[in-house]
Structures are given as structure tokens and as C-alpha cells.
Amino acid sequence: MPQALDCDWSEAQPPEKFENPMTTNHSTACGHRLRHLLRGAAIGLLLLGGMLTVVQAEDWPQFLGPQRNGISSERGLLDEWSGSSAAEVWRAPGGVGMSGLAIRAGKVVTLIQENGKQQVVAHHATTGERLWQTSVAPAYSNAMGDGPRATPTLVGERAFVFTGEGVLAALELTSGKTIWRRDAFAGTGGKPAEYGTACSPLVSGSLVIVTLGAPAATVAAFDAATGEKVWEAGADPAGYASPTLLDIAGGKQVVAFSGNSLLGIQPDSGKLLWRYPYVTEYRCNTASPIAIGGKVFISAGENHGSVLLDVQSQGGGYVVRETWQSQGPRSVLRNEWQTSILLDGRLYGFDNVGSAGQVTHLTCIDAATGERLWQKPRFGKGNMIAADGKLFMSTMKGEVIVARASPSGYQELGRKQVLESTRQAPALANGLLYLRDDREIVCLDVRRR
Fold first, then answer.
1. In sequence order, what DSSP letters do the residues of 55-99 get, joined into one string?
2. What is the overall mean pLDDT for the chain?
3. Confidence band (pLDDT; 50, 70, 90) for 14?
4. What pLDDT does 184 receive?
5. I need a labelling partner for 418 at 20 to 30 A (CA). Which of 89, 152, 227, 381 fits?
6. Calculated CA dihedral for residues 420, 92, 58, 256, nearest 10 degrees
7. Cα–Cα distance measured from residue 343 to residue 362, given in angstroms and rounded to the nearest whole number
């Protein structure tokens, strides 16, 4: 139970400057927002089939969505499951790989392995037509599964991608043309983690940030316009989690979950601010850190557990204390590869039993205390996102399951067999739910009727 504790690739000519639409001035940001809203409205009108309505819609431009926390602000999604619920809009051939789906500007982008290459592919968001494909690296093979692992990050008119062996690249979103590409490990003395390079790029301002796990570069930042390395931080081995930008201890910090620790890093300079050891068997720290009321939550499988950390600035440095922790075989939550979802002070997540065991419970806990509120035993391995008060889940069996996000108990709205075995989480954009496996990409309409 929880315990309270005190404790060198060639490159094309790059543009002169890269501007992150999320950090530009107010008028520019408003312009981007207006165009974004108009585009979302246009897509909604194009797909309007009688009594369908999307009250609020947005894109899904990166791993775990708009805010990198698995939550969409969309509304007007299905409330009940009927014969016409989650109707299939399109289905298109895909390819091998564990990369998730990113959606922006009417395009669905992912990485696949096809014809001996790791390729970035873009499909039309509402028709499924393949718009372009670009090879960025040779095929990647691994005993745990072949192909690329990381989800693209779409910012402005660019797609940033990271391959299984660590090639970082920037492409034009409209055409797929390569702007630059780099071997991210070059000059670091490092190499990909045992199961491949899995972190999805984080774009912060003018920087693209990835986890490497090299001897003197746990995390590295690259200039988004040119691909030149800007800083390196940390000396810990890589895990498989993606770095996040969290608002803690009075400011924004890059928080990275390595193979044996959690690191807090100053985004612009790469200065290492604090380090919290978290050693897991096989270095399988895979779920992303989550901000909870200014604190940081992490969880790991392999029978490890969870902890909520309070990070405070003190005496010119930082102090990290455990608010609560729940470790070992009796832990309340052990995320194997799935990042839990925080809604209204509760964490919804997959609790994996044993060392990569086959038994997984769906669980809801109180985020502030670690108290278990309910558990759906032997639910099975899967992944989830959230929107409109609901959990949208994909399972390793290839099912889509929709349930209410309720602290009072598991309330399933329905399920549907959609794909073959998959580990990828769904992606939600403009009322459409996207999923993929090693063969296909599928789009479902999940708007309320």
C-alpha cells in the first residue's frame, strides 16, 4: 500500500529559422489558432452525415496528444454504443513498426518499415489516401519487434521523427521532403537501448529533444531548423520513455525517465537540475512522467510500482521528496509501457502483474494519496487515451473499447474488433479515432449521433 515519505548524414539546405507555433507571439499564435479552428470546422462539415456534431475538435500532433498527456479536449463524442457507433471511415495499408499516429493539418503521419527501409508516411486524414512517403533510414531489426518505435511530432509545417537505431530527421509536412537528418548518437559514444530507440521527439521552443542514454548524454537537444546539437545532459542509460515538458518547482522543466532515474533539466541550456534514482529490472522505464498539481508521477512495470514526487527549489538547488510510493508485488499501479491518464485527480492505468507477466488489471487510483478506488481484474494488456469524460482503449487483441472515466467503477460503453495485435495507443482528432497495427491503419468515427 502507499506510504507517505519525506524524503554524418547528408542534409538539404535548412531554412534560416524555425518558429514553434506554440511559443510565438500572441498575434501569430491567434492566427494559428484561428486557422486551426477553421480547418477543424471544415473537416467536421465535410464529414457531417446527418445528425453528427463535434462541439469542440482539435488535432493530435504528437505522442500522447496535444498536451503530451493522453488527453484531448474534444467534446461531442459517443455516449452509447449501438450498431452504428464507431463506424469505420477508412482502412489503408500500413507497415511494420510500433510508431504511433500523429495528426495535423489534415494529415495522419506515422513511421513504418517497408521495402527494407524505415519510412515516414502521410495519409489524408478523412479519406486514407497515402499522400507521401519518405525513407529516412535502413530497416531496423530487434528481437522484441522490428521497425521504428517513436511517434512523429508535428509542429508548424514540419514533422520530426526518430528511428529505431537513432536517426533524427525533420521533414516538410506538406510534401515529405527531408529538411535535415542526423545520427543522434554520433560523437556521444552511445548506442540504442537493448530494445531500440523508442522515445518520441519533444519540441520545446526552437529545440528538438530526445533521450539517448549515451555516457555523457542521457538527453540531447538539437536545433529544430538545422539539426545541429545544442546541448547534452545526464550520464544515465536510456529507458524507453519519451521526455516531457512539465510545469514544476516554479517553471518549465524537461523531465526525462531514463533507464535508472528521473531527471529534471533546464530546457534552453540543458543544465541538469535534479536527479531521482529509480532502478528497474532490464531498465524498462517506459511510461512517461505525469504532472499532478505541481508534482511528478512515475510508474514502471517489471513488478516495480509507482511514486509521486514533490520537487521544490531550495537553497539554490532542488529537493525531491516522495509524497507517496507503492512498490513491489503489492503495488497499486505498475505501468508496463502504457502512460496512465490523469482526470479530475484520479489516475486510470494498466497495472501489469509480475515480470512482464500476461496478467494486467485496469485500475483507478486517487492521484493525491495512491489509494486504489477500483480495479477491473484481468482486463488484459492495452493502451488508452481520454476525451469527453471517456477512456478510449486499444488492446493487444486488436479491440477498441470505450468506457466512462468514473471513480465509482468500470463502466464499459462497448467494444469492437478492429485490428490484429497492436501495442499503439489510439489517436483522436476532429471526432475521428485512428489506430494501427503491423498491417493497416484504421479510422473510426466516434462522434455522438
1. SB---B-STTTTTTSSEE--BSB-SS--TTTTEEEEEEE--B---
2. 89
3. very low
4. 97
5. 152
6. 50
7. 15
pTM of the predicted model as reported, rounded to 2 decimal places: 0.89
Beta strands in 177-236 (DSSP E): 178-183, 202-204, 207-214, 217-223, 229-233
Could you give phi then psi for residue 204, rounded to 5 degrees?
A: -130, 110
pLDDT of residue 182: 97
Q: What mean pLDDT comes out for the span 58-72?
A: 97
DSSP 11-22: -PPPPS----TT
User: Residue for cell digits 519540441?
Assistant: 203
Q: Which amino acid is at 223?
A: D
CB 201 within 8 A of CB 207: no
Q: What cell does 423 get?
A: 501495442
pLDDT, greater one: 41 or 231: 231
Burial class (CB in 10 A: 0-12, 13-18, 19+), 271: exposed
Tens digit of pLDDT for each residue in 234-279?
Answer: 999 999 999 999 999 999 999 999 999 999 999 999 999 999 999 9
Q: Strands 382-387, 244-248: parallel, antiparallel or unpaired by DSSP?
A: unpaired
Q: How do beta strands 411-417 and 399-404 pair?
A: antiparallel
* 438, pLDDT greater than 80: yes
Give the Å distances, CA to CA, from 55 to 36, 41, 52, 78, 276: 15, 10, 10, 12, 42
Q: Of residues 66 and 86, which shows the higher confidence score? A: 66
Cβ burial, residue 13 (10 Å; 0-12/13-18/19+):
exposed
Give the three cell numbers for residue 436: 494501427
- For residue 232 the three cell numbers come to 547534452
List domains and CATH numbers for the chain: 26-445 (2.140.10.10)
Q: How far apart are CA 87 and CA 442, in angstroms?
A: 11
Direct distance between the N- and C-terminal alpha carbons of the chain, in angstroms, rounded to an integer: 43
Q: What does the alpha-carbon distance between residue 413 and residue 435 come to, in Å, rounded to a whole number?
A: 19
Q: Is the pLDDT of residue 34 over 80?
A: no
Q: Are strands 153-155 and 272-277 parallel, antiparallel or unpaired?
A: unpaired
Cα distances (angstroms) measured from residue 67 to each of 94, 200, 291, 309, 341: 26, 14, 11, 20, 12
Residue 48: predicted pLDDT? 45
